[in-house]
Amino acid sequence: MKSWNYIKEHMYGPLMDNSETFNCFHKHNIIAERGNGELRKSSLMKHLGIVMLPVFSLFLLYHVITVNASDPSLTEILNNLGFTNLAQTNIETFPPGTYNITIHAEFAQYPNENELSHYKINTSSFTVIFSGPEGGSGYIFPPITKTFTVNYQFGLSLSRTFSYPYRYYTESSRNPDGAQYAKVYKNLDNPGIFLIGFDERTYCDETGDKDYNDMVFSLQLQHYLSVISPYDTPSGEGWYYNGTKAFTSLANDIIDYGNGTRAIFTHWSGDASGTNYSKSEPIYMNQNKTAIANWKIQHLATFSQTNLDSSALSTVVTVNGINKTFSELPYAIWVDSNAVISYSYSNVSSSTTGKRFTLTSITGPTSPITVTNPITITGNYTTQYYLTVTSPYGSPTPTSRWFDTGTSLTASIITPWAGPTGTRYLCTGWTGTGSVPTSGTLSTINFAINQPSHITWNWKTQYLLTVLTDPAGLNPQPTRNPSGEPGDTWWYEASTDVTLTAQSVINYTFSNWDIDGISKGSGVNPITINMNTPHTATAHYSPPFSVSIYPLSASINVGSSVSFTSIISGGKSPYACQWYLDNNPVPGTNSTTWTFTPTTGGIYYVHLKVTDAMGKTAQSETAKITVAIVPVGGQSYRIQVQTRTDPLIPYVALVSVLTMISIKMRRKKRKH
Ligand SMILES: [Ca+2]
Ligand SMILES: [Ca+2]
After folding, report:
1. Where are the extended beta strands (E) located within 523-635?
2. 63-96 per-position pLDDT tens digit
3. Which of 123, 130, 316, 642 is the most buried (most CB within 10 A)?
């Protein structure tokens, strides 16, 4: 059997258990059955062959080639498959890589036995890609694709090892006859694709018919694109045909953890480039490549405030030079991790006049901040209100200024307040707005401020009425109506009419009032003064009416004279004078002086009587004159005149001392 089988196989092909057994002769004259249910010509020819074996045995030595005219050529097959822009190459081996290999057609006589392998060059270590039964007869639809990866330069080999054994290589030099058994085309439309047509054994001399259409397949080198991203789920990782362009992408460019920290896509790197998260720049896949999505971490920095309200007007916080007002708070910004931000909170004005907000503290890290975590910074404010204090006089406590809301205040003012000479001011109380009670009559007020407030201190003006007598200190002093205040003083409210009445003073005669040096008219009493300014009123009195003469004693001789002079004090001029000698008026002596020339010796008494304009009279002391008779013979007596001792000097001195004592006593009384 073995020898028969060997011969039979050698002569007719492999022994098979079906009608696909062929011999070298037959196979050139048959058309392989490719459909099911058709009468297979091969079966008929097998029987014919057996019968005709002796007759045609010599024929076996000849190779009559009968090409099946219905089989498409390799070019037609490729064109039919859509590969039209092709260039044949002399490539025989292929570089390491991962390949897709797709079998498209088997226009072979032994499609069920053609086996395709790859092998490392210079070895006979074959790895089967498509086994014989795989594929089909003619076009294979759908085509069958497989993937293999080799890390060495390799070739492809078409083989059949059982009957009609053969093995052909893409490397022509390894083929039995050194001929080409595989045509390798480049797809000019897609350089990553090789299109290969292999020929199988046709003839008993182990050669083929070189139609290269017994197994037609494409070979596509692939490269793997790895995509690395620490966040999000990147797309685009996978296999790509050599020479194609790949893209990688992210679903999101922001991954927010919701805890104040987020990741932000920045750019592609590695074998990718670009800043568009949703599509990188094209990646040319001529080798395995890696795309890296780069991200940065950001933290949320939040700026807020306490105690401001919607009346807040001006900038609250400035963050990296950007001003933010109340309505823009809280202000949250994303800050790159480890970036530095700076901020400052400001005192804040208010749309309400007399209200403002003062920064009292900041909660959170101080500026500048290197941000490594989510941070919150809060400016804490206190509301302040302005207290306006208005007073035309005095020294109020407090003066106008800002106060924290809720501050308890005691406002006060010193009263009376001295003005210009003779002028003073008395506080009559206050009027208030805001937190200050509407009005009051004291010079002190307690309140707590919780809104813009105003306190006005109210005053009345008083003028001093100074009342004097002339001579000073006469008793009783003039009366006044109404009386001044307080108590026994002469302060009067402005515009008060005051009636002054000069009183009768013993020995003195009222003369007139003057106000500020201007007489109100002789004898006018009482007078009324309108206190529109400080005034000084003086009641003038005439002093006691008296007259003195000089000398009060003298001794003369008859024939000599004594000249009397007089001093009139008080009364009211004009004066009428009358000299008396021994109590008898001397006719014609109506002057203030009189020269007495006695004609006889003796003792004489002289005085002067004066009547003033008011009819009052005053009489001088009496002078005593001794007159001697001159003896015969002409002896003379020396006249001795007494040295005058003026009685007015001690009198005036005494009155002055008494007046001063009186004034001092009155002042002491006032102070008490
Ligand atoms: Ca097959
Ligand atoms: Ca062939």
Report:
1. 527-531, 535-542, 546-550, 553-557, 562-569, 576-581, 584-585, 594-596, 602-611, 617-619, 623-628
2. 344 445 578 999 999 999 999 999 999 999 999 9
3. 316
